[in-house]
Design goal:
206 residues; alpha/beta; 7 helices
Length: 206
């Protein structure tokens, strides 16, 4: 089992924690990590874009001028794509962009990205993260103590004081164990996880 240091909110090391290799020590599968990110971004797309083809725009029923003898190029309709007000060639229509990933692939991708964070020393464990009041300055002080400026902060349980204190800090996002995903973990340079969140992650994914 790999070991990581445990820090307090002042940035001082207060112990060590053994990580479960079934979650934080797996073989990193780059292919599934890529698939998970592509799937997540595709699933965010609304797919509501729509434009009209030449058969759907109004007007253009009659031929604008006779076929020959005018000196103009032949035209069959004023609603052809080359005309102002005409239809769109291969117009986009509402569609579903979602890409399905099965549960096993999702779990392997998440374990792979968690392992990569541990291997790259971008996984910081806090003994606890609690505030008596909503104070952005206090949360920023914790980040400064840990020498971190862009982080995904994972909590074991919902804490409104922590969430609201972090909300206004750019490049910081808080998440619960059941909401972490591959894209968010890769998006932020560092992963800050409370000790109870690590135990919850191991319980869910081991």
């Amino acid at each position: 089992m790999s070991k990581v240091s445990v820090y307090n909110m002042e940035g001082n090391q207060v112990g060590e924690l053994e990580l479960n290799d079934a979650v934080f020590g797996v073989e990193i599968n780059q292919h599934l990590i890529h698939k998970a990110v592509v799937s997540q971004l595709a699933n965010k797309r609304q797919g509501t874009q729509s434009a009209k083809t030449r058969s759907e725009v109004s007007g253009g029923g009659r031929k604008p001028w006779r076929q020959k003898g005018t000196g103009h190029a032949r035209q069959g309709s004023t609603r052809a794509p080359q005309w102002t007000g005409g239809g769109v060639v291969f117009a986009p229509k509402p569609r579903n962009y979602s890409i399905k990933l099965n549960k096993k692939e999702k779990r392997i991708a998440l374990k792979s990205v968690l392992t990569s964070r541990v291997v790259e020393n971008k996984f910081i464990v806090l003994d606890e993260l609690k505030f008596d009041e909503i104070k952005t300055k206090k949360f920023q002080a914790v980040l400064n103590n840990l020498k971190v400026n862009k982080a995904l902060v994972v909590l074991g349980e919902k804490n409104d004081n922590v969430y609201l204190s972090a909300r206004n800090i750019p490049n910081v996002q808080t998440a619960l164990v059941n909401t972490i995903n591959v894209y968010d973990i890769l998006k932020y340079n560092t992963m800050i996880v409370t000790k109870d969140a690590v135990a919850a992650i191991e319980e869910v994914y081991a």
